[in-house]
Amino acid sequence: MKFLKKMMQVALAVFFFGLLATSTVFADDLNSEGWKFVQENGRTYYKKGDIKETAWRVIDGKTYFFDYMGEMVVGWQYIPMPDEGSTIGPYPNGIRLEYMPMSKWYYFNQDGVLQEFVGWQQLEAKDSLNVGKKHGEGFEGPEVLKLAYYYFDQDHSLKTGWLYDQSNWYYLAKTGSSGKDYLGGEKRSGWIKDNSTWYYLDPTTAAMQTGWQYLGNKWYYLRSSGAMATGWYQDGSTWYYLDAQNGDMKTGWVSINGYWYYLRSSGAMATGWYQEGSTWYYLDAENGDMKTGWIYVDNTWYYLRSSGAMVTGWFQVNGKWYYAYSSGALAVNTTVGGYYVNYNGEWVQ
């Protein structure tokens, strides 16, 4: 007898842990005898005598959820997963599993039936009018609320965050535009910020964009990850500068970390000699920063004012006079207008 009793205990233990390891998602209950739907005070319960169901329950092939008060839910619900909940069941012999739940978003119709969606669905957007509602309570559907696209995983729960689907990335909002968590899950388009990084999603398809994008009369560069680039960006052999805050491509003169640069109308950083109007500037051949003072280019000396403008004619530096031809080249070892300049270009009195 002791041996038989011991074997029964082992069998029960194996059965119990088997329940933990096996998914219980949406399987018909095995002991539904005596249970029935009951309407009380405008709410719907599933009861057996005085006992109320307070968890997931599959009834006649349809899945329902009853909250901790036993009330049947409708609309959008943030509740424990069917195989992770704190009170899943009932199971044969009255076994119920109790441990910390992992909650997700699910959608129930106006009759309280879980909608077993998988993939993209267009539904009424989450709103205080349809989130956390109970059967018998006011519940607004698509006739009243705007529609939005949502994506449901294989377990019929709502997905949020980044989604890779059919060769494209999409972003499903973690929160609503007001910052409230319960409004999350909508498929976003346009500019979105995830953590500290900006991304752009096509306004029509909502697919994440990469590469150069012309948006709102400005150019932006989105890396292969979709992240908006800022600061210096090299494309092939060409450098561009993208605003450190807004990411828009800059053109014209820009001052960066105390240095001046010139970015052409294409955004490409200029190098070497650059003429603006009748004035010439010299931009470092490697770094592109505007030079000032004395520079030696192609075996010739030039002088650039503090504004970067190349000088011509007579000019004075540190009390000494020099002469630069119309090309900007420094005159050396020659006489200019009756004045002699030496090998350093200095006027010799």
Automatic annotation (TrEMBL):
Q: Would I find Repeat among this entry's keywords?
A: yes
State the InterPro entries in the record: Cell_wall/Cho-bd_repeat
Task: Give start and end residues of every Cell wall-binding repeat.
Answer: 188-207, 209-228, 250-269, 291-310, 311-330
Q: Please state the span of the N-terminal signal peptide per the UniProt entry.
A: 1-27
For this protein, the record's Pfam families field holds: Choline_bind_1, Choline_bind_3
Q: Which UniProt keywords apply?
A: Repeat, Signal
User: Which Gene3D superfamilies does the annotation name?
Assistant: 2.10.270.20, Cholin Binding
What is the name of the protein in this document?
N-acetylmuramoyl-L-alanine amidase family protein
